[in-house]
Design a protein that fits this description.
- The protein is an alpha/beta fold and 426 residues long.
- It is built from 13 helices and 15 strands.
- Helix 8 links the parallel strand 7 and strand 8.
- Helix 2 runs antiparallel to helix 10 and helix 3 packs parallel to helix 10.
- The two termini are 31 Å apart.
- The structure holds pyridoxal-5'-phosphate.
């Protein structure tokens, strides 16, 4: 039975909030690094880290200290004036990412909108596409956020239904299929906007070589390659940026989530001057984008990432997590169809004939592990990059127990046969 404090917070949110989410029924009260406690005092391992926003772990002491220092001086002035934290943050970000300029925003979706505006204006002013005719190629099963323009080029019916009319100027290609990119390209194509790994679609990795072919195709056709690394960026996949796995460099980069160090919404669009300089005063902006507090925290987030070698840690711990989950898969028979991922970003594909991902996520939460399903069939594990092998062991052992319990109940149901075998060894 749900304890009464938990129930009352859940009911209050349901009564006064919009019904646009279906959270796992856990009421988080506090958190530190990779651990979270609910209002009943129960402890959980955070294997989700707010979709990568908490890559540094919850309330990293250096980030909290940087926020406090800045809060004692000034937090928000808008971009009507200059400040002492924005320049240092932008310089560090550009140096780290290898781009000449960065434009700060707040949420990932705003940075994607910034990329769309920049690409279209570049298409018009530099490439010579007639104003209003520029087209951007996007992948099927993409996820780039929730604004009306962005959901307009989503291929997910739930994200779009009833929200039209949508902005024109987007054409789809199949993720991983260069022939499909070629087919979608026209003389009016100004950019390809793409995630290096499709996260919301279920942690879908590109086929080897696809991004090299895409890079070449974009260069040959004077099309900007714009990579959305809002979720994959800043170490999540075991490299600083996921495009490094592909041996390419995009023309522009979108970052968010972890850039705010798990404390604030901070996003950015990065490109070289030849692209970014299509923006002039008045053409784009945001009241809160690049505010003094956000810039101070984001600068510290970049420094912590480097000082604590979190990218290398993500690669090491990610290999460990994937290996342990594959061992569970081998013993779980048909319940788990696939375990895939890079670094500390893993999707466990559940066969809906045998179990529902949501049900397993809820059982995991009851047993002290926070994860989240996507598309009813995939459980995502993406813990803070600071996670230890001991906590990974605890989380995976719990997962193995939850899967084993599901298999045991399924054997009572002849419609859902499962393989036998002990999961203790996993
Ligand atoms: C790849 C990608 N782009 C953009 C976004 C949107 O970011 P936000 O929710 O901060 O607007 C997300 C969020 O999950 C994302 O995964």
């Amino acid at each position: 039975m749900t304890p009464s404090r938990t129930r009352s917070f859940i009911e209050q949110e349901a009564r006064f909030g919009a019904r646009n989410y279906r959270p796992v029924p856990v009421v988080v009260d506090r958190a530190l690094d990779c651990l979270v406690w609910d209002v009943e005092g129960r402890e959980y391992i955070d294997m989700m880290s707010a979709y990568s926003a908490v890559s540094h772990g919850h309330l990293h002491p250096r980030l909290v200290a940087a926020a406090h220092r800045q809060l004692a001086r000034v937090a928000v002035t808008s971009r009507a004036y200059h400040g002492t934290t924005l320049g240092p943050f932008l310089e560090q970000l550009c140096a780290l990412a290898g781009f000449e300029r960065a434009l700060p925003m707040n949420t990932g979706a705003e940075a994607v909108e910034t990329a769309i505006k920049c690409a279209r204006r570049w298409g018009h002013r530099v490439k010579g596409i007639a104003d209003g005719q520029a087209e951007i190629l996007v992948a099927r099963q993409n996820f780039h956020g929730r604004t009306s323009t962005i959901v307009g080029f989503s291929s997910e019916p739930d994200y779009r239904a009833g929200f039209g009319p949508f902005a024109p100027g987007f054409r789809h290609f199949d993720f991983g299929a260069i022939a499909s990119v070629r087919e979608a390209t026209s003389a009016n194509t100004c950019a390809v906007l793409v995630e290096p790994i499709q996260g919301e679609a279920g942690v879908i990795l590109p086929p080897p070589g696809f991004f090299r072919e895409l890079r070449d195709w974009c260069s040959q056709n004077r099309v900007l390659l714009v990579m959305d690394e809002v979720q994959s960026g800043l170490g999540r996949t075991g490299k600083l940026f996921a495009f490094e796995h592909e041996g390419i460099r995009p023309d522009a980069l979108i970052l968010g989530k972890a850039l705010g160090g798990g404390l604030l919404p901070v996003s950015a669009f990065l490109a070289d001057a030849a692209v970014m300089d299509v923006f002039d005063p008045g053409s784009h902006g945001s009241t809160f984008g690049g505010n003094a507090l956000a810039a101070a925290v984001a600068l510290e987030a970049l420094l912590v990432l480097q000082d604590e070698r979190l990218v290398a840690r993500s690669a090491e711990m990610g290999d460990y997590l994937i290996a342990r989950l594959r061992a569970v898969q081998r013993l779980a028979g048909p319940v788990i169809r696939d375990v895939r991922g890079r670094g500390l970003w893993v999707g466990v594909d559940i066969d809906p004939a045998h179990a529902s991902a949501r049900e397993l996520v809820e059982r995991l939460a009851e047993n002290g592990v926070l994860s989240k399903e996507t598309h009813q069939t995939v459980i995502r594990f993406a813990p803070p990059l600071t996670i230890s092998t001991a906590l990974i062991d605890r989380a995976v052992d719990t997962f193995a127990r939850v899967v084993r319990a599901r298999m045991a109940s399924a054997t009572l149901n002849p419609k859902a046969p499962v393989a036998s075998g002990s999961l203790e060894a996993a």
